[in-house]
Amino acid sequence: MSAERQEPSAGGGTTPPRWLDLVSDPRVSQVMHRVVTWRAPKPVVGAAIRAFSRAYPVALDEASRPVADYTTFQDFFTRTLKPGARAIETDPRLLPSPADGRLSAFGPLGVGRLVQAKGVDYSLDALLGDRDEADPYRYGSYAVVYLAPFNYHRVHTPWNGTLTHWRYVPGALYPVNGLGLRHVPGLFSKNERFIAHFDTEFGRAAMIMVGATFVGHMKVVFTDLAANDGQPASGCQRPDDPLSLRRGEEFGVFEMGSTVVMVFERDDVQLHVGLGDAVQMGQGVLTLPERAA
């Protein structure tokens, strides 16, 4: 029988500071969403974007639109890039990053546990929201890409595959930076998330978009369901028609930065870049060794 419940994470961590619990309330992110989607006069929006870009290393020259074209600060956060700004890895033995960010975690799943931070881990069952859906990956591999607020916030499909099923899980919106990872056990399995499962050219794999503080709004290409909008958990959903996505095709978008988790049934996935390295969407980051026929 499928277990439609999430289990608490075991494995270390300290009691979260009170302010972390306060900012994790989805209503805080709903207020921020209203602020960043406010249609202020364009000179005001432009000034805010330039100030932000001076404070953080934003590559404005990569954006498909000039600063003067943005009508809200959120337009800027969810900006698209100029054609050719990112090259998509085509070598079938290399798996590209689904997003700009930092490769913050990688490893074997062992008995179905993922390392969140030193001394803190969490379960695959809790992350995926269902024990049966976690079974194919139980002894596979995982990788995590963390997106900072200044990164390009669109998430792209890192493989050629067909979406088989998905689910939306509402939850808290803890920050996913170092402080949150150290103090909130099972953070990725407590935060709001979209979970999508694929049959790919190298086996089964799943991609999870994890919400965070001020990232209470996520969008994905396979549903109009609104994140952080009071919606209940979706349960397991299967597309009416097969949805095939290829490497580099858009998968979803974060409003501000957050985290993408990839899990694989294969246990032989290897690092192609250094753990903790900054990566770009489309850059080969994982190696898929060839298997004997």
Number of helices: 8
Major beta sheet, strand line-up: 11-7-8-9-13-5-2-15
In total, how many beta strands?
16
Helix content: 10-25%
Radius of gyration: 18 Å
What number of domains?
Answer: 2
**Which band does the percent of strand residues land in?**
25-35%
Outline type:
globular
End-to-end CA span:
34 Å
What order do the SSEs take from the amino end to the carboxyl end, as H and E? HHHHEEEEHHEEEHHEEEEEEEEE
Low-confidence stretches: 1-13
- The SS-based structural class is alpha+beta
Mean pLDDT, rounded to whole units?
A: 86
Largest sheet: 8 strands, antiparallel
Question: How would you summarize the topology of this molecule?
Answer:
Layout: H1 18-23, H2 26-36, H3 42-55, H4 73-77, E1 94-96, E2 101-108, E3 113-117, E4 120-123, H5 124-128, H6 131-134, E5 141-146, E6 154-156, E7 161-169, H7 178-183, H8 187-190, E8 193-200, E9 203-210, E10 218-220, E11 243-245, E12 250-254, E13 259-264, E14 270-271, E15 278-279, E16 284-287
Antiparallel strand pairs: 1-16, 2-5, 2-15, 3-4, 5-13, 6-12, 7-8, 7-11, 8-9, 9-13, 10-12, 14-16
